[in-house]
Specification:
By secondary structure, the chain is mainly α. The chain has one domain. It has helices at 2-21, 35-48, 60-64; strands at 80-83, 86-89. It is globular and about 35 Å long.
Length: 90
């Protein structure tokens, strides 16, 4: 199961990177404005039906470690993300 989750996350990262290559130049770095890359991420996520509403930026590595931690709720206790496209379980 861990290999499947790792593969899924890796696939998403590569897919997003591929999407970036089809756009106008976006500069990324500590002195750059983050809005263009965030806009690109939001557009990509919307195209893929991925909810970014509660992205677990700091906690995702812990949630990935084992099947037991795969269903660790978000800080507000939810284990699902709901938006206008439906509900997605974490």
């Amino acid at each position: 199961m861990d290999k499947e989750r790792h593969g899924m996350i890796a696939g998403a990262v590569f897919d997003f990177c591929g999407r970036l290559t089809s756009r106008a130049t976006i500069s990324v770095g500590s002195s750059e404005n983050a809005k263009p890359i965030m806009d690109a991420l939001s557009e990509w996520a919307e195209e893929r039906g991925l909810c970014l509403e509660d992205a677990d930026v700091k906690g995702w590595p812990d949630r990935l470690l084992s099947p037991a931690t795969a269903q660790v709720p978000l800080p507000d206790g939810r284990t699902e993300c709901s938006d206008d496209r439906g509900t997605t379980a974490f």
